[in-house]
Design a protein that fits this description.
By secondary structure, the chain is α+β, with helices and mostly antiparallel strands. Helix content is 27%, strand content 17%. Strand 5 and strand 6 form a beta hairpin. The longest helix has 23 residues.
C-alpha cells in the first residue's frame, strides 16, 4: 500500500502563500482601479474668475496690464451719449460718399463711343425724364432758337424713328466713287430721322432767299439736334437730318451724323462746340461756332433719295456723295 507523500512542516502551504502576497490594508492604494482622482478638482479652479478679455481691453486702451493679484473691480463700459444717433448719421455719410464715388466712376457709353463729361454738366439744358418723348423735347428746345430776320422760326422740325408713313427706312450709304464707290447698309441700326420743313412747297422756306449763310445756319441747327440726341437718347447709332430745298426744287440734301463723326463734341461740353447764345443769320459770320460747324458738317452732306425694297416691307434712304457743280 502506497503512502501519500507528507508535506514538510517547513514548506509553505498555498493558503500561506496567498496570505503573504495579500498587502496589508493600510498599505493598499486608496483606489486600486485608478478611478479616484489624486487631487480635488475644485482645488484646481482659481479662487476668483478673471474675465478673459480684461487684459486685452486694458492693453488696447493703453493701460498697464492688471496683475493676477489685483482684485480691483472692473469699471463698467461707458457708452457715449447720442452714440446711436452719431452712428446713424455716420452711416448716411458713408453711403453718400460711396454713391458719389460710384457716380464719379460711371462712364456713359452709347454704342462704341465713351462719354467723358457727366451728362448733368454737358449742357445747361437737357430733356426731363417723365416729360414725354426726349426726341420731341429736343425738337421743342432747339427749333425755336433758329429764326429768320423777320423773327419767324426758320423751319418746322419733326423727329422720330427712321421711317416714312410707318414704313421703316434703312440707310444705304454710298461712298465717293473716287474712294471706291462701295455701298454700306446700316442694317439693324437705331437711326433717328429729323425733317426740316420751311412750310413752303415741298418744304421749301417761303421767306427770304437761299444763301450760303442760310445753308450753314441750318447745318448748325442739324448739328445741335444730333449732339443732343446722341447724349440724351439711348442707343442711337446715327442721326439723319433731311434739309429743306430751295424754292421750286425737291428735297435732296441730307446730313448723316454718326458718333465717330462728332466724337470731340461729345467728349467736351456743348459750349465748346456751339458757344454762346444761338446766333442770328446776321451775326452768324462773326459767331465763334461758325468755323467749327463748317468743319464738322461739311463732309457729312449727302444727296438723298428713297427707294423701295423689292423683298421686304421697308425702304432704303440712299445717301450718295454730292455731285460737283
Amino acid at each position: 500500500m502506497s503512502e501519500e507523500p507528507r508535506q514538510s512542516l517547513f514548506e509553505p502551504t498555498l493558503e500561506d502563500t496567498e496570505a503573504e502576497l495579500r498587502p496589508i490594508a493600510r498599505e493598499r492604494p486608496e483606489d486600486p482601479a485608478g478611478t479616484k482622482p489624486r487631487h480635488d478638482p475644485s482645488a484646481l479652479l482659481p479662487e476668483s474668475h478673471e474675465p478673459l478679455l480684461r487684459q486685452r481691453a486694458n492693453a488696447d486702451a493703453g493701460l498697464d496690464p492688471i496683475d493676477d493679484d489685483d482684485d480691483a473691480p472692473i469699471p463698467p463700459t461707458v457708452v457715449p451719449p447720442h452714440s446711436a444717433r452719431f452712428q446713424f448719421v455716420y452711416g448716411i455719410l458713408i453711403g453718400v460718399a460711396v454713391a458719389a464715388l460710384v457716380a464719379a466712376a460711371i462712364v456713359f457709353t452709347h454704342g462704341d463711343r465713351k462719354q467723358t463729361v457727366a451728362l448733368s454738366t454737358w449742357s445747361t439744358w437737357q430733356p426731363t425724364r417723365g416729360s414725354g418723348d426726349p426726341i420731341q423735347q429736343i425738337v421743342d428746345h432747339v427749333a425755336p432758337e433758329y429764326r429768320l430776320p423777320s423773327g419767324r422760326q426758320i423751319v418746322a422740325v419733326t423727329g422720330g424713328p427712321s421711317q416714312v408713313q410707318g414704313v421703316p427706312l434703312v440707310v444705304a450709304l454710298v461712298s465717293d466713287p473716287a474712294k471706291g464707290g462701295a455701298m454700306s447698309i446700316l442694317e439693324n441700326k437705331n437711326v433717328v430721322l429729323y425733317r426740316m420743313c420751311g412750310l413752303g412747297n415741298d418744304c421749301a422756306i417761303k421767306d427770304g432767299k437761299p444763301s450760303v449763310e442760310r445753308g450753314l445756319y441750318l447745318r448748325r441747327e442739324a448739328l445741335e439736334l444730333a449732339l443732343y440726341t446722341f447724349n440724351y437718347v439711348a442707343k442711337v447709332d446715327a442721326v439723319t437730318v433731311l434739309m429743306p430745298p430751295e424754292m421750286g426744287k425737291k428735297p435732296s440734301v441730307a446730313l448723316l451724323f454718326r458718333p465717330e463723326d462728332v466724337q470731340p463734341s461729345l467728349q467736351n461740353p456743348l459750349v465748346d462746340t456751339l458757344p454762346g447764345p444761338t446766333p442770328s443769320l446776321k451775326t452768324l459770320k462773326t459767331s465763334p461756332s461758325t468755323p467749327i460747324v463748317n468743319s464738322i458738317t461739311g463732309p457729312l452732306q449727302f444727296d438723298f433719295s428713297v427707294t423701295q425694297d423689292n423683298t421686304n416691307a421697308r425702304g432704303y434712304l440712299v445717301l450718295d456723295t454730292p455731285k460737283g457743280p
